[in-house]
Design a protein that fits this description.
With about 400 residues, this protein is α/β, with parallel strands linked by helices. The chain is built from 17 helices and 13 strands.
């Protein structure tokens, strides 16, 4: 039994936030039907290199970017700028419990695919709209991109080295964090709205904005300003509220030190041979360590530079002081714990080969997740879905393909 068995999702989203949400739903067992433009498909299909290679070692048209967010879905290629394509989407929406889209505000209304139009066909439909800035407000009609939202939403102001320091200035996070968090909020909201629809028979529209997500997950940094009245700044790898909690130098590189309480700090001082630091009134409590951050960090850095990172990590682990190496991506996948947890998976692909991927981090004791297939090729399931869901026969499919309404394998 799959968690979302019997739930059908119509996915009109592209790029990352929407596809990330629908991939989570697909992992949970929902039947996700990804609608794509014939001949073009999701924009990210072309966002490479790298591209998946076929059995002969040649590049396919499937980019690594596209593959990371679309596993387990079925792709149908329908041109809904055409009236017959719009009719197909409406018919599919009438037979789905969820629809996810990330078009500009009002962009689907001209096709009769907006929430009001589809609600008339399917009152129980959960309709999730993902935009850059939301359905209302002065920025509502602006296009939203992850990096722009990281900037306007405050994340860049607390990410990177301080102004004046080497490499200082605003930095974006190394992955599209706002898109990914929006996708996770979307998946959560959809599940909640489905529960409501099951109880009442009434669906609803979910208005989810990248900017709203970014502001919401400023978390303690937002609270620091709202409560304390001081604007947080960039502190590199350091934590605004905990000291020492940052990347530290070693004789041969760096490692991450994450001291979370006073007892851990005392053990750290023993490990580095400076037990007096834990007894010093300036450093005995976290409040004091935050107030005297610069002096303490300088002392620690001088001491930690005397030995290799691996030696410090071993000593700190024995003393139960949180610390870790700063891994490259290849080292992540070679890590013993990552391998033990099976975080890399290999999924069958329509090319005949397999696609390496990262498993969903959620583990359910009664309903373990099942990974059916890698991300689909463009239009791979057009015939299958339209026959199965709409009961279209071969003659009708040929007519639609001749009219250029359909692409792919119809």
């Amino acid at each position: 039994m799959k968690l979302l068995e019997g739930i059908r999702v119509l996915d009109l989203s592209r790029i990352l936030a929407g596809p990330w949400a629908t991939q989570v739903l697909a992992d949970f067992g929902a039947d996700v039907i990804k609608v794509e433009r014939p001949g073009v498909g999701d924009d990210t299909r072309g966002w490479g290199p790298p591209f998946l290679k076929d059995a002969e070692g040649n590049d396919t048209t499937e980019s690594a970017y596209y593959l990371c967010a679309n596993r387990g879905k079925r792709s149908v290629a329908i041109d809904f700028t055409l009236p017959q394509g719009q009719a197909l989407i409406r018919a599919l929406a009438a037979r789905c419990q969820v629809l996810v889209e990330n078009y500009k505000v009002g962009g689907l209304a001209k096709y009769g695919l907006d929430y009001a139009s589809l609600r008339a066909l399917n009152p129980a439909l959960v309709y999730c709209s993902i935009t850059g800035y939301g359905q209302d407000g002065p920025y509502a009609r602006r296009a939203g991109y992850d990096a722009a939202i990281q900037a306007i939403g405050g994340l860049m102001s607390v990410t990177g080295e301080p102004d004046g320091a080497p490499g200082g200035g605003p930095q974006k996070v190394g992955v599209a964090a706002t898109d990914l968090m929006t996708g996770m909020y979307a998946a959560t909201a959809i599940l909640a709205a489905l529960r409501h629809a099951e109880r009442t028979g009434q669906g609803q529209q979910i208005d989810l904005a990248l900017l709203d997500t970014q502001v919401a997950w400023l978390a303690n940094q937002a609270s620091n300003w709202l409560v304390g009245g001081q604007v947080p700044g960039r502190q590199g790898t350091a934590h605004p509220n905990i000291v020492p909690y940052q990347v530290m130098p070693a004789a041969d590189g760096h490692f991450m030190l994450a001291v979370g309480n006073d007892a851990q700090f005392a053990r750290l001082c023993e490990v580095i041979g400076e037990p007096w630091l834990a007894a010093d009134a300036r450093y005995a409590t976290n409040n004091g360590r935050v107030a005297h951050r610069a002096g303490l960090v300088s002392l620690l850095q001088q001491r930690l530079r005397t030995r290799p990172a691996a030696e410090w990590l071993e000593r700190l682990e024995q003393a139960v002081v949180p610390a870790s190496p700063v891994n490259r991506i290849d080292q992540v996948f070679d890590d013993a714990q990552v391998r033990a947890r099976g975080l890399r998976i290999d999924l069958p692909h329509a090319s005949g080969g397999t696609v390496p991927a990262v498993r969903n981090p959620l583990r359910f004791s009664a309903t373990p997740l099942q990974y059916r297939q890698a991300a689909p090729v463009l239009g791979q399931h057009t015939t299958q879905v339209l026959e199965e869901v709409l009961s279209l026969d071969a003659d009708r499919l040929q007519e639609l393909q001749a009219a250029r309404v359909l692409g792919g394998a119809a």
